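Dear support,

I submitted the protein below through the web form. The confirmation email said the job was done, but the results page showed an empty box. After a refresh the structure appeared. I'm attaching both so you can tell me whether what I see now is the final result or a partial one.
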Amino acid sequence: MRNIIIVLITIFIFSIVFVRPAIGQESAGDSARLDSIIINRSTNSDKKTYNFAVVKLTIKSILEQKYNSALADQSEAFTTACKKYELNCFLLPAIAGLESTFGKFLMPGSYNPFGWGGGNIYFNSWEEGIDTVGRGLYEKYIKKLNTDTLEKIGSIYSESPTWTPRVASFINIFEKEYEKNLLYLPTE
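What the results page shows now:
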């Protein structure tokens, strides 16, 4: 009975997260007025246009206000890794959310909120950890293994069948806040 409930909950979460219109797909006119934009590889194989000033604001505000995370001051590092490695800008914060409750539960002094290397790899700073995991996702997953979807990344990153929908739910939280924050940009 417990297994049936788990399967039903997983199906429900999957349907909410993945069977919905894509968030953040602006029309040509909308994306043309955004400053600091770049096309990134998204975790769902669609091209995504980001306003990086709004990405930084979104990451910082969610990590600070909603999760009281020590990672809130790392919005610049998350955004830099997103640009540098062509990742969905909310993938790394979402993984940190799942793996360590945004840096709250990890090996002391490890600066590894991602569970990278089973959580046993130590970095010298949050920035080093963010950059290393971003590079690792790009080089070892996306580029080498052509794992360009969250589902493919999740099947390698974790043995848990619920890893992908749980990371996706965190990405969705960031995406919704990002869309809300975009509304407050002044138009030209």
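Response: this is the final, complete result; the empty box was a page-load delay. Helices lie at 2-18, 28-32, 52-66, 75-84, 91-100, 126-145, 150-157, 163-182.
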